[in-house]
Amino acid sequence: MVDAQAHAARTMWNLLHAWWRMMPKEKRTLANADATIRQARKDIDFLAILPAQAAQAMLKTYFQAWKNCWDGRASAPNFKGRFRTVTSVDIPQGRDLNVVRVHRRWGVVSIPKVGRVRFRWTKDLPVGKRAGAENRITGARLIKDALGWHIAFRVQTLEVKPAPHQGPDVGIDVGVTVPLALSDGETYEHGEWLTGKEKARLLYLEQRAAQRKRHRKPGERTSRRLHRTYDQIAGLRAKAKRRAVDWQHQTTTAIARTYGTVVVEALTITNMVKSARGTVEEPGKNVAQKSGLNRSISGEAWGRTVTMLTYKTAWYGGTLCKVPAPGTSRRCSACGFTTPGSRESQAVFVCKNPDCGWSGNADHNAARNILHLYWMGLALIPAAGRAVVRRARRAKPAAARQAGISLP
Q1: Contact, 177 vs 348, CB < 8 A?
Q2: Does the pTM of the predicted model rise above 0.90?
Q3: Strand-by-strand arrangement of the 261-265 sheet
Q4: Residue 350 pairs with which residues in a beta bridge?
Q5: Shortest CA distance to 373 belongs to which of 319, 336, 318?
Q6: Is the Cβ–Cβ distance between 262 and 313 less than 8 Å?
Q7: Which pLDDT score, from 0 to 100, does residue 279 have?
Q8: What are the two backbone dihedrals, phi and then psi, of residue 295, each rounded to the nearest 5 degrees?
Q9: What's 96's DSSP letter?
């Protein structure tokens, strides 16, 4: 039933987007769109399985997507594909949920047109006597991934503004061999996200999927066996990602609680993971090695770590700042000179300056340089809270902005 609602929501989004592109500018109003959705739910049977409140929430989300586009915060909305978009259903009204905690590990929630559903209780929710006008559940969203359905609650709560964090300043250098190296000598490392048996199982499934795909005739539909193999591969990868996110949450929480100012590099990760393949006229060098490095960088998810640090430092009264990245790994943190050949290996830094000769861990040396740039006043982006960094205005949003929108 929930799968049918999710597919109905995706179909309704695509129909609304097609209506938007077909209608003249003066008729693209919220009232006309609402009337169109109501008529579509009457004319198309399977759209009626989606609750009316979820349809209204989808309509508001679509109009907000255009506003974000015109403000330069996102690209223009587009059609949603079945396999390249997140499968989800919105429950905008919190009073319909009737959340009840059964015992320590489980709770029960009411899903419209589905009934009472049990869910795993992983975080305290304002239910029963703990709920009030300033602390209550305002809605939820059902999200499906490779591991199944999950429910995310929207909670309105009144939080006290934290006092300024009195902890020390720290610089953080991110890497592949050592994920996080701090300027005070602390390091945060992790093991493999999958066990040996899970990695062997993943390799076996990938080989079997490749073999079945190779024997499939051109134009032939994908078999159910191959779909099942793809689902098993996606499940193992989702399990690895969940473990990685859990490690990142625990690590960033510990850092935000300990330090008052966290300084990181302003890395352009998309440029760092570009392919070295080159062109036919000018082929690249060490393509396989660069490809492996790109996978390692993407696996560490440095951007997600910085995002977590941004809002968690704000929660605890701290600050996150970014400094320029060039030269931090080649400069000596003791004398301040950049001498060629000082970084002898990935982990060893030996200053080649005759007047210095300092040696130490290369990652910690880079972290100390990052903190030094902050102390010198070279912070680029002082991040506080969940600030949204606007995208550069491009041709697509500008062209879409000419279509216009009118709200009642």
Answers
A1: no
A2: no
A3: 187-188, 180-182, 169-174, 261-265, 319-323, 381-383
A4: 359
A5: 336
A6: yes
A7: 66
A8: -65, -40
A9: G
